[in-house]
What does this fold into?
Amino acid sequence: MFNFKNPKNPYRKKGKDYRLSENSKLTGADFGYTRKLASQIYKIMQLIQNESCKNDTYTRFSKVLYKVVRNDQVHELGKLQLGYGNVAPLKGFRFFKKRNWHNFFMNKPTAELDIEKGAIRFAIPPIFAREFNKFPERTRKVIIKMHCIQVSVGDENIVELNSSKELVITEVDNINSRSVYFAIKERANVVALCVATVRIWLESVNSKEEFLSFDSKFMTAEIFDALVIRDGQLCHFEEQKFSDMKPPEFPDSDEEIDWV
It folds into this structure.
């Protein structure tokens, strides 16, 4: 019979008397590592476009990042790390689930490693003025930016952010394919999260002014690609398969990278 005066289960061990299985402890260590790293990266995501970060964004991102960490093909359970396995689950992650690049443009950006330049090249396909038909009637210009979140591979996962300048598109423009390069600096071992953002300037109802919309319906932010670079080379993975971490590092200046 249930004891209403003492409802706690007397047979349930707690604290040091409760012995977790070894695998459970190791899995817990990997999960804790992932949560800390996800928190670091999420702070950067908020800097990129906080308006697209909703209540569930961090939780969804943590789950996807954990899948990636579990793909580690080098380390044992309990010591899994980012950058040693397939990062494909991160591709297509949207800050806000209801909006992505295809809500605005037909063709997605691409990312590739340029070994000679020691940089990652982000490119957008040509954008034609007729694509403005997909935007709200009061749209006056569209702002595209690219962002490269680099996470160093190793015991200290240092997180850095670099962003492009704004690429402004209006309804009378046809934009040729444009590129922007993000240097990988001296770090030859990084995971690069390639982020594209879109925002819209609208004309006011009385047509007297223009303003940047803060409505999440008129913006997007997503990780369109993710790359693992080891020893300066792009890694390819055929299969889907810890330490105290430093806080995120931010650029020494606010200087943004130009388009070419």
Summary: The longest strand covers residues 139-152. Residues 77 and 118 are 33 Å apart (CA to CA). DSSP finds two helices and eleven strands in the chain.
